[in-house]
């Protein structure tokens, strides 16, 4: 039925095709009738002759072949014409559609745009979801829309740091001064590298980032070309392998000697199939094209806006596998040891039969969770649709074979929220869908072991606790605490958590530092605030603090009793000075915060500001963008510091 | 026209030898067993030994008595059995009798030949041609309600529109 509708739609929109099919079928009918009459005529002749005892007839095969050809040829012409011009009908299969070409991608996009009803302004919902993501990004330290920058990796003896043009390897030598060496990245002459992540796996060090190359467009304008660059250093022979992928990197991880990454590719739908084809992901290895993706999987119902490309690069062999997914912008990619998971929040305008749902589009608000196995080749595994959209990326969690997520939906009775637990096969194990306690607008869900906290958009509303202990029957409980639990809840050590929030504004109306709280979380339903401190680095009357948190720098050493936090500060007296650094807090669960020290350096605008705190032996290694300092854990004195490189600016 | 009633084992052999086209409506019963004769039919009871004679008899029944037409060519004059003639055609003001691979000029008018061979399954297909139905191999419809007759000798003869209906009627087409 779907095919018939598809064909009719195609013919109605294509006069040439309609003409060919009408003429072709007309000729077939004409010659068919002619053949039939001729056959009957000669049959009667034979009957007549048989009566006269004449039975040795010639066959006249040639004549029959000619007539049969006249019937078949028009059909063949029609068939050939459609083979050449008619796009392959889209095969719907369990919420995902295989698209074989750029034309298919364009067709899905146009079909979606056509079905988009101007009467229903669902774009607003997308905007709300995007806004929630952006808002959350600013306030939460544990999860990001895009891969958080992490430019330092440690293997126990060496610290690896990537900058915008080199890799720095530092040997940790206890109390002795560390040794550092640098290796230049295999960049093009005019290229600039914006590192995003550094990973290590056995004998390989992998730097992932964006490489920007200026190119002359034959005009007076010099444009730039941005690719995702993957530089793999083989430590056994100190040789580089360079991979480049079009698009920007979104997620990077390393599993069993394979680099798994996802990239985003914007698609230009307005200038034809060639421009769409240009957005298909392609991978080059040392400037040779090694893999070009020419098809894609479309997650049905999602707004076809961009390609999310999934890549797996085997470090040892250099083999590359890629899969393109056509889906909406509101897509988050996670990976575990078996599969990539795509969470695409969107609005399902039509079902698998392409029937547009006019009645109540809100009923079709969905989040599609799609799995692509990556153990061998990256392959589509399945999609599960759940109602509602993700309010933010932090409202989901993938670990230990379980997927937990919160969705929200503006239903007629108000904002309805739902919690789902899925296994790795995307079967819904448990859910909370109709709990009246979960009505209202929630902003995010913060996970803490088997529990999660649901934070309402309005601070006056109750925080909810979701108990995931029984995954088949998650339970929503109101949290009975005397004060609001901050949204940034970070595990410290077993049974304790730290919250980081802005302190109150000072007398001049400026934020005046950070408020840090330690909570006893032994009973998740009854978190108890143990210690509080406000970190104010104000040394000048009108100085404000802007704090930026990077999760990789947030480190707590139970043995050392030290907590490290990244931060930067704007000093607004006279000339504005921006400082960035690592704040080291002395903290124990018993005594609370008892001291701090700020190790700063001048802030640089580029993203190569790699700050990192690493506890090693009795020392604390603090990495800033151009030096590493070894801090005495007892006295917080700097024992050693070595320059790493001088930045260009 | 004929119905063959012989023992099953011998049926195919006898049928192929006699070239008997059996029909639902039949006037003649051919049998080797006198007990199988049918009333109201013409029954021919024969021994298998006399199959050849029966064959000639059946030819006579089906096609009637042979009629001869006199024709001549550069070799000389010849009396031609009508059943060997594929068709007559007027060419260069002569009436020619066309056989499988030779032609004879017949010193008769075409309508005279038509009258002569009235019961010999010859049919007028145009002002210039008279065709032996038994020698038509294939009928090919052409445009403008015409028919092209492919004869057994490979020649093509056109059925004129004027004679189209008569031709079809003669053949029960």
User: How many beta-strand runs of chain B?
Assistant: 13
Q: What share of residues of chain A is helical?
A: 10-25%
Mean pLDDT of chain A: 74
Describe the biggest sheet of chain A? 7 strands, mixed
Structural class of chain A: alpha+beta
Oligomer: heterodimer
Strands ordered across the widest β-sheet of chain A: 1-2-15-17-16-12-11
> Could you name the ranges of chain A where pLDDT drops below 50 across 5 or more consecutive residues?
89-93, 117-147, 349-363, 539-551
**The CATH topology of the largest domain in chain B, please?**
OB fold (Dihydrolipoamide Acetyltransferase, E2P)
Strand line-up of the largest beta sheet of chain B = 5-4-8-7-6-10-9
| Helix count from the secondary structure assignment of chain A | 6
Number of strands of chain A: 42
The shape of chain B is: elongated
Structure characterization notes:
The complex is a heterodimer of chains A (649) and B (173). Helix content of chain A is 17%, strand content 44%. Chain A has 649 residues and is α+β, with helices and mostly antiparallel strands. In chain A, the strands form nine sheets. Chain A has a seven-stranded mixed sheet, with helices on one face. In chain A, a hairpin with a 2-residue loop joins β30 (489-493) and β31 (496-502). In chain A, α2 (15-51) packs antiparallel against α3. The longest helix of chain A has 37 residues, at 15-51. Chain A is elongated, with a radius of gyration of 32 Å. In chain B, strands 5-4-8-7-6-10-9 form a seven-stranded antiparallel sheet. Chain B has a three-stranded parallel sheet with strand order 1-2-3, with no helix packed on it. In chain B, strands 11-12-13 form a three-stranded antiparallel sheet. The mean pLDDT of chain B is 85.
């Amino acid at each position: 039925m779907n095919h018939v509708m598809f064909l009719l739609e195609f013919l109605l929109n294509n006069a040439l095709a309609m003409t060919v099919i009408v003429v072709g079928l007309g000729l077939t009918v004409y010659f068919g009738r002619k053949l039939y009459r001729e056959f009957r005529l000669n049959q009667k002749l034979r009957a007549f002759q048989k009566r006269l005892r004449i039975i040795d007839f010639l066959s006249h095969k040639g004549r029959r072949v000619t007539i049969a050809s006249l019937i078949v040829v028009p059909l063949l012409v029609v068939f050939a014409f459609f083979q050449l011009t008619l796009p392959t009908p889209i095969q719907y299969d369990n919420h995902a559609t295989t698209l074989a070409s750029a034309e298919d991608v364009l067709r899905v996009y146009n079909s979606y745009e056509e079905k988009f009803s101007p009467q229903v302004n669902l774009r607003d919902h997308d905007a709300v979801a995007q806004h929630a993501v952006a808002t959350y990004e600013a306030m939460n330290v544990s999860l990001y829309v895009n891969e958080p920058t992490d430019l330092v990796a440690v293997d126990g003896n060496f610290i690896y740091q990537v900058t915008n043009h080199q890799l720095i390897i530092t040997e940790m030598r206890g109390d002795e001064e560390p040794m550092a060496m640098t290796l230049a990245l295999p960049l093009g002459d005019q290229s600039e590298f914006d590192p995003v992540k550094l990973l290590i796996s056995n004998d390989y060090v992998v730097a992932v980032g964006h490489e920007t190359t200026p190119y002359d467009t034959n005009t007076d304008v010099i444009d730039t070309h941005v690719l995702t660059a993957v530089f793999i250093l083989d430590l056994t022979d100190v040789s580089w392998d360079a991979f480049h992928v079009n698009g920007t990197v979104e997620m990077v991880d390393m599993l069993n000697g394979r680099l798994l990454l996802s990239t985003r590719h914007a698609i230009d739908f307005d200038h034809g199939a060639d421009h769409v084809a240009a957005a298909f992901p392609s991978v080059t290895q040392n400037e040779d094209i090694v893999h070009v993706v020419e098809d894609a999987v479309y997650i049905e119902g999602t707004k076809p806006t961009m390609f999310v490309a999934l890549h797996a690069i085997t470090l040892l062999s250099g083999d590359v596998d890629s899969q393109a997914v056509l889906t909406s912008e509101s897509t988050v990619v996670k990976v575990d040891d078996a599969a990539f998971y795509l969470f695409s929040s969107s609005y399902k305008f039509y079902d698998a039969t392409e029937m547009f749902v006019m009645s109540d589009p809100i009923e079709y608000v969905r989040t599609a969770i799609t799995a692509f196995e990556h153990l061998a080749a990256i392959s589509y595994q399945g999609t599960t649709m759940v109602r509602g959209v993700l309010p933010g990326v932090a409202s989901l969690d993938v670990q230990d074979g379980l997927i937990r997520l919160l969705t929200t939906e503006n239903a007629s009775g108000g904002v309805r929220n739902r919690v789902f637990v899925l296994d790795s096969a995307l079967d819904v194990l448990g859910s909370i869908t109709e709990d009246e306690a979960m009505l209202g607008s929630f902003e995010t869900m913060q996970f803490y072991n088997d529990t999660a906290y649901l934070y309402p958009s309005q601070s006056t509303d109750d925080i909810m606790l979701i108990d995931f202990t029984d995954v088949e029957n998650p339970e929503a409980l109101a949290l009975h605490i005397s004060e609001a639990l901050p949204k940034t809840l970070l595990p410290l050590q077993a049974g304790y958590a730290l919250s980081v929030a802005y302190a109150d504004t000072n007398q001049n109306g400026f934020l005046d530092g950070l408020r840090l709280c330690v909570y006893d979380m032994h009973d998740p339903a009854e978190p108890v605030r143990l210690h509080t401190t406000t970190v104010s680095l104000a040394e000048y009357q009108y100085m404000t603090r802007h704090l930026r948190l990077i999760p990789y720098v947030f480190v707590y050493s139970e043995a050392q009793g030290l907590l490290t936090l990244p931060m930067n500060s704007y000093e607004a007296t006279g000339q504005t000075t921006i400082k960035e650094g690592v704040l080291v807090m002395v903290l124990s669960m018993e005594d609370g915060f008892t001291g701090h020290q700020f190790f700063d350096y001048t802030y640089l605008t580029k993203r190569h500001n790699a700050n990192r705190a690493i506890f090693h032996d009795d020392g604390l290694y603090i990495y800033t963008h151009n030096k590493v300092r070894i801090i005495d854990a007892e006295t917080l004195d700097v024992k050693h510091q070595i320059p790493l490189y001088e930045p260009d600016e | 026209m004929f119905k063959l009633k012989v023992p099953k084992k011998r049926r195919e052999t006898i049928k192929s030898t006699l070239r008997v086209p059996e029909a639902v409506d039949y006037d003649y019963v051919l049998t080797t067993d006198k007990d199988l004769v049918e009333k109201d039919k013409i029954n021919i009871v024969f021994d298998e030994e006399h199959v050849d004679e029966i064959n000639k008899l059946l030819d006579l029944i089906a096609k009637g008595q042979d009629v001869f037409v006199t024709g001549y060519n550069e070799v000389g004059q010849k009396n031609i059995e009508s059943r060997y003639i594929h068709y007559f055609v007027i060419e260069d003001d002569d009436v020619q009798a066309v056989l499988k691979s030779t032609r004879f000029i017949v010193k008769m008018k075409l309508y005279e030949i038509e009258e002569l061979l009235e019961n010999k399954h010859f049919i007028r297909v145009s002002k210039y041609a008279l065709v032996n139905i038994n020698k038509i191999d294939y009928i090919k419809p052409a445009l403008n309600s015409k028919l092209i007759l492919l004869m057994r000798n490979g020649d093509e003869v056109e059925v004129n529109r004027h004679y189209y209906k008569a031709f079809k009627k003669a053949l029960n087409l």
